[in-house]
Amino acid sequence: KLTSLALQPVITPELVQGRVHLKCSYSPPSSEPPVQYRVLWSRLSSPGKREQVHQETTPQPISYVEMDGANLRLGDTVFCTVTAFRRGSPEQQSLPEDSKGFYAGIKFVPESLEIAEDGKEHVLTVLSTVPIACPGQEDSCKITLQLSTEDLGRQVPGPPDIALSACQVDLQPEPCSGSSCAAATVTVTAVTDFAQDGNRVSRVSAQPVAPRDLLWRAYTPRDVKVTVRDLPTGNCYSFTDPHIITFDGWRYDSDKIGTFVLCRSDSRAFEVHARQWDCGGHRSATACNCGVAAR
């Protein structure tokens, strides 16, 4: 047998005549006589099981297979396995070498998020690992993804636990680099819900909107799991002839008449005003709450 040749097969995506293909490249041995290659393409059909989709014998150090939407679909994890043998003596062959699995489709980065109810925005990148192809409409070529959120494990309907900065993102073609052939970003924020409801799990889903390309039509990308860590909520009070308790627990009384700022955020558009009027009459100078305005 030929020894292990360190062929190191690698899968990369490529557009060939406007169609999405995967290319398997491997390092040819420098030794003579000439060598041929048997390339076996397979996809992950279930965890730990692979299904063969194409096989060819070639003298070239590359092999192509098309993402046709039938044998190979978006959402598949694809492998190429390469064996080298001497021309004329196929019994003398090297050990088969596997590429790493190539996931073809939409990826979220990171694949899961853990965030807190602290108002911070977290960037979620949506990328396509395969080129976006739009034959005949290059000027407006894009894949639009509709984004949605869902709370998992909630028994009764309620307000969502997370908010996205956009409901749709557009993936526009760009040269493939690393694992990305098109990318867009969206921010995720935990909704501050003033409820002690424990840590909750939500998910972000993406769905291609009316794609013209057959390849994208029956494809639903994987979800992203977002865990929201519950944080205790601060409370402040102003009640009756105003007794005031601040966020940090200070207590005092206010008997002034007028309109006052109860609280105002330094970082966002949020404030609460209280209006106090005279409710003591001639006997005592007492003010009571009579109105509130919140922004």
Explain what you see.
Strand 22 and strand 23 form a beta hairpin. The model has no long low-confidence stretch (mean pLDDT 88). Helices cover 1% and strands 51% of the residues. The protein is built from one helix and 24 strands. The chain folds into three domains: 95 residues, Sandwich (Immunoglobulin-like); 124 residues, Immunoglobulin-like (Sandwich); 58 residues, no CATH class. The protein has 295 residues and is mainly β. The strands form six sheets. Strands 3, 4, 6, 7, 8 and 9 form a six-stranded antiparallel sheet that branches. A five-stranded mixed sheet has the order 11-18-17-13-15, with no helix packed on it.
According to CATH, the homologous superfamily of the largest domain is Immunoglobulins
Class derived from helix and strand content: mainly beta
CATH architecture of the largest domain: Sandwich
The unreliable regions are none
What's the count of strands? 24
Which sequence of SSEs, written as H and E, runs from N to C? EEEEEEEEEEEEEEEEEHEEEEEEE
Pfam families: Ig_VWDE
GO molecular function: signaling receptor binding
Organism: Panurus biarmicus (Bearded tit)
Keywords: Disulfide bond, Signal
